[in-house]
Design brief:
Length: about 375
């Protein structure tokens, strides 16, 4: 009998479309703004229309989000990781166009952490050459790989060896460059007003309003709230395990009046994951498909990260826990925990994701999160 349900947020309760918009805008800014590589001669703007954002997203990720779908099919779930891989791949492509004349500089750049100042320096050198972006290379290059999840970071090192002739480990793990990508994305998503609360740092590129005020639920707000009420009344404990930062989880839930249904000790966000990662002696990713998010969601945020990481897997009485998610990363995390998994078809790939979830033998495949009620009623 299911006694606890842990929900992912994006693609399950709230639409992730604005996250993908922010991700594309982040890659675009890192390439074109004077605060980074400065490939565009025009002053970078931050007030794009919805039509312009659509064009940028199709340019960066493909007309049908082929890049995002490929990465999700490899078990990658975090938007920051997707941004990092997309920008890192384009970064290597740009350097490949100047390698004949700048071999020593490239080798130097790829042996030390790459922060914003180094990106500006590299942009100044790229400005002396006629270099071109080519986003169409991403899918063919990554289809040649067999890596999954965060191992895809290591594949960037392999591409650097192949395309630049440089041996490097610079792209592995949560690097300085990854942190630059993360911060720019947060600027876009939460806006100037909230970025300090989100990252502890001010915006680098001012003028961003953010997307927080425009959250879209994946079913009627009242119907999702009725589901939460039903679960509470049925004695089912509910929690959240999301890749969203705390601000981007709590603020929308507050506006939607959903927080009253949850114990805050069991609302786990990317902030909890990042905090735990920083406590590790060897910094590594704990984001999904690592089960850490859901282990904390089950045990509670008051449980130490060490205890959660050392928890024996599979968990005891795994049949009593149900994880509800929209991605392969969620399913893989649930499998490592030995619990049940319900896939909802409201994520990026929509109903096309059914075959993937069938292949990986999800316990339940649901058209919408509202169908979770039927699982409980049958018990």
């Amino acid at each position: 009998m299911i006694g606890t349900i842990l929900f992912d947020v994006d693609g399950v309760l709230l639409s992730e479309e604005h996250y993908f918009d922010a991700s594309a805008l982040t890659v675009w800014e890192l390439l074109n703004s004077n605060n980074y590589l400065a490939l565009s001669p025009e002053k970078f703007k931050t007030d794009y229309s919805s039509t312009e954002i659509k064009v940028i997203r199709e340019t960066v990720f493909g007309k049908n989000d082929e890049v995002l779908k490929l990465l999700k099919s490899r078990g990658l779930n975090a938007n920051w990781d997707m941004i990092y891989l997309s920008f890192g791949h384009q970064f290597i492509h740009l350097l490949s166009q100047i390698k004949e004349n700048e071999k020593d500089r490239i080798n130097g750049w790829l042996q030390e952490p790459i922060d914003r100042e180094i990106l500006i320096e590299i942009g100044g050198v790229l400005h002396n050459y006629e270099v071109k972006l080519d986003f169409d290379r991403f899918v063919p290059d990554f289809e040649r790989s067999i890596e999954t999840k965060q191992e895809l970071f290591n594949y960037l090192n392999q591409l650097a060896k192949e395309k630049l002739g440089v041996h490097t480990e610079i792209f592995s793990g949560i690097s300085e460059l990854w942190s630059v990508c993360e911060h720019v994305c947060q600027e876009w998503y939460v806006g100037d007003e909230n970025v300090g609360k989100s990252t502890g740092r001010p915006s680098v590129q001012l003028g961003k309003k953010g997307f927080l005020a425009n959250e879209t639920t994946l079913a009627a707000k009242s119907e999702i709230e009725a589901l939460f009420t039903f679960l509470n009344d049925s004695g089912v404990k509910i929690g959240i395990g999301t890749g969203r930062p705390e601000l981007e989880t709590i603020q929308p839930f507050h506006h939607l009046d959903w927080l009253k249904h949850f114990d805050s000790n069991h609302i786990v966000t990317a902030d909890d994951v990042l905090k735990a990662e920083k406590e590790l002696i060897e910094r590594r990713s704990l984001s999904k498909p690592h089960p850490f998010t859901y282990i904390v969601g089950l045990n509670g945020r008051e449980t130490s990260a060490e205890d959660c990481l050392n928890a024996p897997l599979p968990i005891e009485n795994g049949e009593e826990l149900l994880v509800v998610g929209d991605s392969l990363a969620d399913l893989l995390a649930a499998r490592k925990m030995g619990c049940r998994f319900a896939a909802v078809l409201t994520g990026l790939s929509g109903k096309d994701a059914r075959s993937t979830f069938e292949k990986h033998e999800a316990d339940y495949i649901l058209d919408t999160v509202l169908d979770v009620r039927g699982i409980i009623e049958k018990k």
